[in-house]
Structures are given as structure tokens and as C-alpha cells.
Amino acid sequence: LKTGAHTIGSSHCGRFSHRIHNFSRSSRIDPTLNPAYAMELRQMCPENVDPRIAINMDPATFDTFDNAYYKNLIEGKGMFTSDQQLLTDARSRATVNLFASNNAAFGNAFAQAMIKLGRVGVLTGNKGEIRVDCSRPN
């Protein structure tokens, strides 16, 4: 559910470029991606693009916290493989469909998940850190 946070923000091209340039020997583009969306991503993130270039994770409403992220998944517009797998995996498909059709259900579930996550393994003082880059320790 925390991937629902991908409804807002951006990602550097290098985090998903394998899906649009060299997915496999038989297909340069991940076949689970919407073809038109894949072409848009390729235009914004050509091969050997500057690694500082970042693209909105939600192409529909990138600056609004809403359920468009889930609607995008149904349309094959999940930027990351892990996002798109929420729809292709039978265990999470019903949740994707629910959240795509019900913004309030998504908002309530996200709030509850954030409350729970806020209580897990909180480190304080010199045992914890606020990361400058979430992908690696400072």
C-alpha cells in the first residue's frame, strides 16, 4: 500500500530505464507497460540521459495526492515493475481496483498504513538518521 505514495513525486530515469530500453532479449520495452506511455517515457528518458533528470511518477495528477496512481496501473502506466505487479498479482488486484474506483477508500487506507508504519522500529538520537537520499544511508 505504501507504493500508493507514488501518486506524488518524481523518480530519476535510471530507476526504471531498463523497462523502456532493454527489458529483455525479445522485447526492448516491458510488455506490461502501456505502449504510448512507454514511448512518452522514452522521449523524456532517452538512453544515456543525464542521471539528474527526474520524471513524475504519476503522469495524470503528479502534484495531487489522489487515487490516480491506481487508475494508472489499470491503464499499464505503472512506472516501476513493483508498481505494475500490484495489478498483475491476484493477491493485490482487488485492492488496486477498489482504490482506483474509490478515492476515499485509498485515502483512509493510506492514512492507517502510515500510522502503523510510524510505529515500526523508530530509531531516536544517534541510532537513527534523516536521510538526504532515501535510497542510501547518509
From TrEMBL:
InterPro entries tied to this protein: Haem_peroxidase, Haem_peroxidase_sf, Peroxidase_pln
Domain Plant heme peroxidase family profile: residue ranges: 1-138
UniProt keyword terms in alphabetical order: Calcium, Disulfide bond, Heme, Iron, Metal-binding, Oxidoreductase, Peroxidase
Binding site for heme b: H6
Cofactor(s) this protein cannot do without: heme b; Ca(2+)
One Pfam family named in its UniProt record: peroxidase
Annotated positions binding Ca(2+): T7, D58, T61, D66
Name this protein carries in UniProt: peroxidase
GO molecular function per UniProt: heme binding; lactoperoxidase activity; metal ion binding
Organism: Dorcoceras hygrometricum
